[in-house]
Specification:
The chain is α/β, with parallel strands linked by helices. The protein has 13 helices and 17 strands. It has 2 domains: 209 residues, 3-Layer(bba) Sandwich (FAD/NAD(P)-binding domain), CATH 3.50.50; 148 residues, D-Amino Acid Oxidase, Chain A, domain 2 (2-Layer Sandwich), CATH 3.30.9.
């Protein structure tokens, strides 16, 4: 199954609130005929757009191929949360790879967050950037873990996190499902598709050549290498794979380490005066479930809520119903609120929930598997690949040295095995563990 076309109409954005609330670009031309370039990038999400922008600014000739529209995938559909550090919390990361290596990755994660903020400022991208992400705990044990994490980060990383008691969290987020948490005001949230379109404008202005409706069907290795589409070819000195959950058959090496999964988001009708029944401050929230619930308010007062699980690659027929179930567990007082938009998206995870950056070939780089932490990490990965092509591979190689396991079961059985594992963790969530 080709996930690029399994759930979406070719060349069209999903019917999301993001697409409805953004000034979309006119379609860009498809690749036709043969082209020669310095760098060919496959995939116009945050990774590919960031790489294209930074390479074009460095004077490289760049062609970027996108099967649908820029920001079509997870980059234009996600929860819009720009988190700190890496996807894995620092104490766990320290146990995995040691304190010094974990500290180095923390620094790269903070660089990623700073990069996004600087790109927005430098290119005047109107994407409603706002500070603040809270992490919510559902019981006393999870709240203690969050508070201990705040102590650890203050002591070892000089990273202040506000500790929230039950009363303090309820004052911020009046949900009966949560009994405390922490607040990171250095993290942020934004309109993800507007950010992707802003990166697109910046890359084009810098001289990058972006082609939409140009599905990469195969790559012929070599120096130079050649990327084939239905109507043309690009021959390039360097190739960047920026496909994340939509890699398809372009690289078996990457596919062995990266698993596509689906996630779902809904946007309610505008809540007007009832926004304070969701959040009393303009921040984003994520909870401590294995199948994470995440939410924030839109600039027009809607609840944007992400949650629910699905274990097939086809989106469910009733996405709104899938999301409404966890939404009403968190906010039962919104049972009469209408859902105006509901959409699905495909992201990619790794076994250790850390990104997978790799030198696929001597002149082929890949970055993917952001595991729900992609807004900053993907943008930064594109920057690191651009730097590596320019001769400074330190940051890229540090990320590529992260130990990443292959998924068990091979192409045929890895998805059922993952579904079984996630079903178990989802059951634990429902039982309150």
């Amino acid at each position: 199954m080709n996930l690029l076309f399994a759930n979406d109409k070719k060349g069209h954005y999903p019917d999301s609130w993001y697409a409805a609330s953004t000034a979309l670009l006119p379609p860009l031309p498809a690749l036709e005929g043969s082209e020669r370039t310095d760098v060919c990038i496959v995939g116009a999400g945050y990774t590919g757009l960031s790489a294209a922008l930074h390479l074009a600014e460095a004077g490289r000739k760049v062609i970027l191929l996108e099967a649908h529209r820029v920001g079509f995938g997870a980059s234009g559909r996600n929860g819009g949360q720009l988190g700190s550090g890496q996807r894995v919390e620092q104490p766990h990361l320290e146990k995995m790879i040691g304190f010094e290596a974990a500290r180095l990755l923390w620094g790269l994660g903070e660089d990623a967050k700073s990069l996004v903020k600087s790109l927005i400022a430098r290119h005047d991208i109107d994407c409603h950037l706002r500070p603040g992400i809270a992490w919510a705990g559902r019981n006393a044990a999870s709240v203690k873990d969050l508070h201990d994490y705040a102590d650890h980060m203050a002591q070892h990383y000089d990273h202040p996190l506000e500790v929230l008691s039950k009363d303090a969290f309820q004052a911020l987020c009046p949900s009966p499902d949560y009994v405390g948490g922490i607040l990171d005001m250095s993290a942020a949230h934004l309109h993800p598709l507007a950010f992707a379109i802003g990166l697109t404008r910046a890359a084009i202005s810098a001289g990058a050549d972006l082609r939409e409706s140009s599905l990469a069907t195969r790559i012929i290795p070599g120096q130079p290498a050649t990327v084939h589409t239905a109507k043309g070819t690009v021959t390039a000195d360097h190739i960047i794979l920026a496909c994340n959950g939509y890699l398809g058959d372009l690289s078996r090496k990457v596919a062995a380490h990266v698993m596509p999964i689906n996630n779902f988001v809904a946007a309610t009708e505008p809540l007007d005066a009832r926004t304070s029944a969701v959040l009393t401050r303009d921040i984003a929230v994520a909870d401590d479930r294995f199948v994470v619930n995440y939410f924030r308010l839109s600039q027009d007062g809607r609840l944007l809520f992400g949650g629910g699980e699905s274990y097939g690659y086809r989106f469910p027929a009733d996405i709104a119903g899938v999301v409404r179930k966890p939404m009403l567990k968190v906010f039962p007082h919104l049972k009469d609120v209408r859902i105006d938009y509901a959409w699905g998206g495909t992201l990619a995870i790794t076994m250790k929930r850390l990104p997978y950056l790799a030198r696929v070939d001597a002149n082929v780089l890949s970055a993917s598997g952001y595991s729900g932490h992609g807004l900053g990490t993907a943008s930064h990965a594109g920057f690191l690949m651009a730097r590596a092509i320019e001769g400074d591979g330190d940051g890229f190689d540090t990320m590529a040295d992260i130990p990443n396991l292959t998924f068990p079961g091979g192409p045929r059985f890895r998805s059922p095995l993952l579904a079984l594992a996630m079903s178990w963790y989802a059951l634990r969530d429902r039982l309150g563990f």
